[in-house]
Amino acid sequence: MHVSVIGNPGDAVVVTVRGDLDLDSATVLGTTLDRVLDQPAPRVVVDVSGIAFCDSTGLGSFVLGHHRARAAGGWLRVAAPSAWLLALLETVGLTPQVEIYPTVADALATDRDL
Questions:
Q1: By its UniProt entry, which PANTHER family does this protein fall under (predicted)?
Q2: What is the count of structural domains for the chain?
Q3: Is 17 part of any domain?
Q4: What secondary structure does DSSP assign to the chain, as a single string?
Q5: d(CA 17, CA 15)
Q6: Region for 3 from its dihedrals, namely left if φ exceeds 0, alpha if ψ lies in -120 to 50, beta otherwise
Q7: What pLDDT, on the 0 to 100 scale, is given for residue 22?
Q8: pLDDT digits over 17-76, tens only?
Q9: In principle, which of 5, 16, 34, 41 could form an S-S bond with 47, CB 3.0–4.6 Å?
């Protein structure tokens, strides 16, 4: 798995994930999210368009990141899931909690701060 971060202080950060997000690799995403969420009112978009596989550990990374961002007065949004990943997020009941957007641009452009 590969994780990259693009952003500027005071602006939304885009975390891009590529590859398999599972028990063996979720710590990489978790560590990255810890770093970008360690600021006042963090605004983070996780680009999941490159995820080939995701297990419950990977899904847990989104939930933990979402809760941590909200607790700090910010948000975490998931963007560009494939059809199978969106179906997985819906099946496990994450879509009511974590905001899902069809594209990174949509996630960055919205004015809603939930």
A1: ANTI-SIGMA FACTOR ANTAGONIST TM_1081-RELATED, ANTI-SIGMA FACTOR ANTAGONIST TM_1081-RELATED-RELATED
A2: 1
A3: yes
A4: -EEEEE--TTS-EEEEEEEEESTTTHHHHHHHHHHHHSSSS-EEEEEEEEEEEE-HHHHHHHHHHHHHHHHTT-EEEEE---HHHHHHHHHTT-TTTSEEESSHHHHHH-----
A5: 7
A6: beta
A7: 94
A8: 999 999 999 999 999 999 999 989 999 999 999 999 999 999 999 999 999 999 999 999
A9: 16
The token duo for 69 is 């961002």
Residue identified by tokens 């957007």 is 101
Domain that holds residue 102: 12-109
Contact of 76 with 62, CB cutoff 8 Å: yes
The CATH number assigned to the domain holding 24 equals 3.30.750.24
Written as one letter, the residue type at 41 is: A
Q: CA 108, 38, 50: angle at the middle one, nearest 5?
A: 45
Q: Which residue has the tokens 């596989």?
A: 53
**Quick one: how far is CA 44 from the chain centroid?**
7
Confidence of residue 9 (pLDDT cuts 50, 70, 90): low
